[in-house]
Design brief:
The chain contains 17 helices and eleven strands. By secondary structure, it is an alpha+beta fold. The strands form four sheets. A five-stranded mixed β-sheet has the order 9-8-7-10-11. It has a two-stranded antiparallel ribbon with strand order 1-2. Strands 3-4 form a two-stranded antiparallel ribbon. β7 and β8 form a beta hairpin. It is elongated, with a radius of gyration of 39 Å. Bound molecules: zinc ion. The site of zinc ion has 8 residues, from α7 and α10. Pfam families: DUF4371 (PF14291). InterPro entries: DUF4371, Znf_TTF. It comes from Bemisia tabaci. This is TTF-type domain-containing protein.
Length: 429
């Protein structure tokens, strides 16, 4: 708890130097040995040191009691497991993690030891690997702490170094000696190698993926556009299968071939290995899937539009037609007014083998529910005059009113009426 309080006080008094983040330029210091290079972002000058701490805090270095304990343990190399865990937690909290830029924390004032000596910010520019933990009042080596594979070094890696008297002494154990140690040099080499490998891997991987991805997307988009053109113009996609050559010669294939001839980029992609030969994305299944996706997108749009507050009510339109398999295809459409304009949109086409009113009613209500269209907003119903739809007792219009427990007037479709008039008139001539 005390340690937390101390840390809090010091964090108020320190300004973390994030220059490595804002200025990730190559390091300005090179430790050359076996072609190894290591550099860090230049530290700011002492003039830039923050003085946000209060006077009382400045005059009373808050970490002194705590650090003396830590350092005592560290110097004796007899720290308990609990102390080690505490130190590790503080390091993790205050200093950089792997793959993060170095944090060279600067305080406006550093605590003095018994000899009146203290850490100095200027050391950062001389030793770009140097880190300082305010809570532990100790120095660490960024490189050895994070990249040393195996090391017996404790001070700069595990426990912290705080022998400020000999810190810059070239003949004694200090920063210079650590920097020239084999442990440090190997750690620097390992770090630079990892960094290079990581950057290379990332860039090549991203480049390949993005490029391939972009080409595949272009190819699939071209297929979708051909399908869209044919569907919108109500043209059959397939149908002309050449039995002799075993190839499909429908409009889809022909139009796609035409598109390849017209667009160089598409031709290049088709002739490259970007699209695997066993995955052409042009099979009838894929074509149907594309049409289905388009259908669902349009149906969702229609449902969303009808569900807005601008459209309080709608009229249900429905009609069916038999296909060659004697299945009834029931088209459900909605007629509504929005922004003073009348819209009629098909919501869905469902197939059914039964042709009774109960089946049609269930299909209709299930469709509305599935598309999230509220049946309570149904103002009227509009069908042809067939008794299965218009019957006042057992017709679809009557069953829907019963099921929804609401009066929803039935209107005999004017278009159907007109059609009947024209047919009858033509018959009499
Ligand atoms: Zn080191």
């Amino acid at each position: 708890m005390d340690r937390f309080v101390i840390r809090k006080k010091q964090s108020d008094n320190l300004e973390r130097n994030n220059s490595a983040k804002t200025n990730p330029s190559p390091f300005d210091k090179h430790v050359t040995d076996k072609n190894v290079s290591f550099s860090v972002a230049p530290s700011t000058s002492c003039d830039e040191i923050s003085t946000t701490g209060s006077d009382s805090e400045k005059s009373k270095p808050s970490a002194a009691p705590e650090k003396s304990n830590c350092n005592k343990n560290k110097n004796n190399s007899a720290s308990t497991t609990s102390d080690k865990q505490d130190i590790a937690a503080i390091i993790s909290d205050e200093l950089a993690h792997k793959n993060e830029p170095i944090k060279q924390i600067k305080l406006s004032i550093y605590p003095k030891n018994n000899q009146g000596r203290m850490f100095r910010s200027e050391w950062y520019s001389t030793f770009p690997w140097l880190e300082y933990s305010p809570t532990l009042d100790s120095a660490f080596c960024y490189v050895c702490r994070l990249y040393a594979v195996y090391t017996k070094e404790l001070a700069f890696v595990k426990t912290g170094y705080n022998n400020w008297k000999h810190a810059c002494d070239k003949t004694k154990s200090g920063f210079h000696k650590h920097e020239s140690s084999s442990t440090h040099i190997e750690a620097v080499a390992f770090m630079n190698e990892q960094k290079t490998r990581r950057e290379l891997n990332v860039s090549v991987e991203t480049l390949v993926n993005d490029s391939v991805l972009e080409k595949r997307r272009y190819y699939v988009k071209s297929i979708i556009e051909v399908v869209q053109f044919l569907v919108v113009n109500e043209l059959a996609l397939r149908g002309n299968y050449n039995l002799d050559e075993h190839v499909e010669q429908g409009l889809f294939e022909n139009l796609f071939e035409f598109t390849i001839r017209k667009y160089e980029k598409l031709a290049e992609i088709c002739n490259s290995s970007v699209i695997p030969k066993n995955a052409t994305y042009k099979s009838p299944e894929i074509q149907n899937e594309i049409i289905q996706i388009m259908t669902e997108a349009i149906q969702e749009d229609v449902a969303n539009e009808v569900n807005t507050s601008d459209v309080p009510l709608f009229t249900l339109l429905e009609d069916g037609t038999k296909d060659k398999n004697r299945r009834e295809n029931v088209a459900t459409a909605l007629r509504y007014v929005k922004d003073k304009h009348v819209y009629e949109s098909i919501l869905s086409i469902e197939s059914t083998e039964k042709l009774d009113a109960e089946t049609f009613t269930n299909v209709t209500l299930e469709t509305l529910e599935r598309k999230n269209v509220k049946p309570e907003n149904m103002l009227s119903q509009c069908y042809d005059g067939a008794s299965v739809m218009s019957g006042s007792d057992g017709g679809v219009q009557a069953l829907i009113q019963k099921k929804l427990k609401k009066i929803i007037p039935y209107v005999h479709c004017f278009n159907h009426k007109l059609h009947l008039v024209v047919v009858k008139t033509a018959e009499t001539w």
